[in-house]
Every structure is written in C-alpha cells, then in structure tokens.
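Key result, reporting period 2: structure in, sequence out.
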C-alpha cells in the first residue's frame, strides 16, 4: 500500500482481492521453522474448471485467502504455473525490502549486509 496525496492510497489487487505484503517469505519461514505462515493443502487440481475459449471471466472463481504449498518427493517431475506477477533476473542478494518511498538517510541503516537471502526472482 502506498500513501498518495490527499490521504488516498494505491494498492494492488487481483480479482478484487487486495494484495497484502507478507511479513516473511515462504523459504524464510521454512528455514527458520516459522509456524502459521502457510498450510500444506494446495490442491492437486484446479477447484473450478476454466473455459479458456469462452466468455471473459467476470467473477471471482472461489480464490481462497491464504498461502498453501504442495510437498513433492525429491526429483519429482511436475509442471506448475501459478505466479501472475513477478520479474525474473539474474541471481542477486536482497539486502532490504519495503513499501513506500525510499528514504536515503534512514533506510540504508536497515540493510541486511550480514546474511542477505539470495534470490533469482522478485515480484
């Protein structure tokens, strides 16, 4: 959520569901054994059949709020595609994240220069 002039705010949404910035990443939650960040009930098949050649979608098809994962056996072969917004790039280290305007006087003091996570996508 970004504060704009006149007390208004800009937020992102998909299917009229507003994006809420997570407090911790999924891999960080797994690494630090943080409970309550995700559930393991990601469906094996779509909950609703989608007609790709039919009329444009006009309603939410039952998108559930929350984060869910699928546990896969090591070396499994799968095909997944469920990330509508992200940017792929080269590997990089995330030394800081945030929402809103960057403050060059205050924000650099918050950088994680000790053990920043390495990533290859950002969204």
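The corresponding designed sequence is given below.
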């Amino acid at each position: 959520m970004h504060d704009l002039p006149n007390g208004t705010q800009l937020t992102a949404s998909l299917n009229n569901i507003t994006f809420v910035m997570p407090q911790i990443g999924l891999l960080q939650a797994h690494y630090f054994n943080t409970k309550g960040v995700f559930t393991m009930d990601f469906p094996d098949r779509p909950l609703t059949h989608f007609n790709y050649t039919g009329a444009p979608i006009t309603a939410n098809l039952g998108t559930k709020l929350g984060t869910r994962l699928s546990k896969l056996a090591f070396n499994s072969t799968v095909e997944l595609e469920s990330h509508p917004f992200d940017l792929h790039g080269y590997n990089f280290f995330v030394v800081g994240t945030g929402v809103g305007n960057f403050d060059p006087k205050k924000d650099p003091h918050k950088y994680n220069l000790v053990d920043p996570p390495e990533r290859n996508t950002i969204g």
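Residues 1-71 form one domain. The CA atoms of residues 23 and 37 lie 9 Å apart. This case is discussed further under Risks and Mitigation.
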